[in-house]
């Protein structure tokens, strides 16, 4: 999968405490765990690892760069786009306050 040329975070990702954050809503814990595995594979591939918190019906993803004083870098934005692609392919929606 190619990196996105867009240097802005995907729509719906929020900047919180020097991190990019998105919350996804898998239909089951098993689907969420498989999504975590997919994210982990991409993270290992590019050697950039997010914080992932899986709860029933909710996966929180936090991206920041330890080597850049825990701030958001282009690597985080690229990884956010990769994660969005995985979510879209798996049919996993992102949490929305409107839903």
From TrEMBL:
<protein>
    <recommendedName>
        <fullName>Putative pterin-4-alpha-carbinolamine dehydratase</fullName>
        <ecNumber>4.2.1.96</ecNumber>
    </recommendedName>
</protein>
<dbReference type="InterPro" id="IPR036428">
    <property type="entry name" value="PCD_sf"/>
</dbReference>
<comment type="similarity">
    <text>Belongs to the pterin-4-alpha-carbinolamine dehydratase family.</text>
</comment>
<dbReference type="InterPro" id="IPR001533">
    <property type="entry name" value="Pterin_deHydtase"/>
</dbReference>
<dbReference type="Pfam" id="PF01329">
    <property type="entry name" value="Pterin_4a"/>
</dbReference>
<keyword id="KW-0456">Lyase</keyword>
């Amino acid at each position: 999968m190619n990196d996105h040329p867009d240097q802005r975070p995907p729509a719906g990702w929020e900047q919180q405490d020097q991190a990019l954050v998105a919350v996804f809503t898998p239909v089951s814990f098993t689907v969420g765990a498989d999504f975590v595995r997919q994210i982990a594979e991409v993270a290992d591939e590019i050697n950039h690892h997010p914080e992932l918190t899986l709860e029933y019906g909710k996966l929180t993803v936090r991206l920041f760069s330890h080597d850049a004083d825990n701030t958001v870098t282009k690597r985080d934005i690229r990884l956010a786009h990769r994660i969005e692609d995985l979510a879209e392919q798996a049919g996993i929606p992102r949490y929305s306050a409107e839903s």
